[in-house]
Amino acid sequence: MLVIGSVAAAIVLVAGGVYVAQRDTGGVDFASCRIGNVAGGMDSFGTEFQLTRDDGQRVSAEQVFTKPSLLYFGYTMCPDVCPMDSARNADAAALLKDQGMDVQTVMITVDPKRDTPEVLKDFTDLFSEDMIGLTGTDEEIAAVNKGWRNYYRANDQEDDEYYLVDHMTNTYLVMPGNKTVEFFARDVSPELMAERVGCFVNAMG
């Protein structure tokens, strides 16, 4: 399932079709860990990118995904969904840290007009000092969202200051080397997310 979140509701889209390919990350077999299946397989998610980190530095995908990462697409002026999802992801990473696993959280904005690096930094620090926020130009953000098959739309036609942004609410598990191996819907608890991510991390050895 791929989920779109808005202020009032979450719309569920079922990705039809047959699971085609399993993700091959350095020869590691993740089949026993994977629950989410989508048309085309997880190989169809992800892309190279150059974005601006919340410290103002330009970074590539390889520079960001140096460790297992929980990747989320959201925005800082989101009134409810994004804060809850970001808190859940941070809680899962904290649980994994208690188990000796180094997993980071990353948020790429779907609202580059308002989400400057400074704004992103203030937002991500609310949840974890280790959470990475990424922004860029309209074109860069559109390209990276397309790479993860993430739908978003800014409702700024009548108000260009206090608008809302419709967007999907999946969190993706991205392994070092920018390899996406799993996704999580927003109804997954921190405990279940930590358990499933831990399976992937342990499989890497």
UniProtKB/TrEMBL annotation:
Residues annotated to bind Cu cation: C78, C82, H167
Source taxon at top rank: Bacteria
Entry keywords, A to Z: Copper, Disulfide bond, Metal-binding
GO molecular-function terms, A-Z: metal ion binding
Spans through the membrane: none
tRNA processing in keyword set: no
Disulfide bonding pattern of the chain: C78-C82
Classification via Pfam families: SCO1-SenC
InterPro entries linked: SCO1/SenC, Thioredoxin-like_sf
Keyword match Metal-binding: yes
Family assignment from sequence similarity: Belongs to the SCO1/2 family.
Protein name per its UniProtKB record: SCO family protein
Organism: Paracoccus amoyensis
